[in-house]
Amino acid sequence: MGRKKSTSEIVLTWIIVIGIAVAIGWYIKDSRTRIDVTGLINAEKSTIETELGLELENNPKMVKKIYEYSEAELTVEGGTSLGVALLYADGKRKGFHIDDKRYTMFGIEIGDNVVDVDNNLAYDYEGTFEVLNDYMDQGISKGVFYYNEAKNDCLIIVYNDATGLVVALTYYSDYKKMTEELSGV
What we know:
Blueprint: H1 7-30, E1 35-36, H2 45-52, E2 74-78, E3 84-89, E4 92-98, E5 103-105, E6 108-109, H3 114-120, E7 127-133, E8 141-148, E9 153-160, E10 166-172, H4 175-178
């Protein structure tokens, strides 16, 4: 007959088993398949809704969370819990925005750090500049604008300054229009 385990040994065993289960759960959750939306950035709204299984509706509260420097009136469809938003300047579609780990764009994921961005960015750009802002009322953030003047488009990667991690990505198909209020650009 074997030695009987003490209560502390049993508790320790259960703590280890639970710890391993939690670690496996976090790994599975973090390694889930992400959807690359790069091919949808200029797609019709109905195509985007069908492909992603979403219903994108007008969301005025999301406007203040978007980096844009246009003289036009910005409107947003989607965002908040959906993780995807379409951006319009004076009613004309100009952009595509993500802020959820379910999606990737141009090789970048929400939660990536600067090194990940440097290694994985698949957007063809000519130059960059930074703008400080307060993204989603969660503290100071910085938007790094990657632009391509020849194509007149840009990708904005928004980093949380406290964590240094990507919190949002915004693509604009009309770089000049969406940055017209920035001087020196």
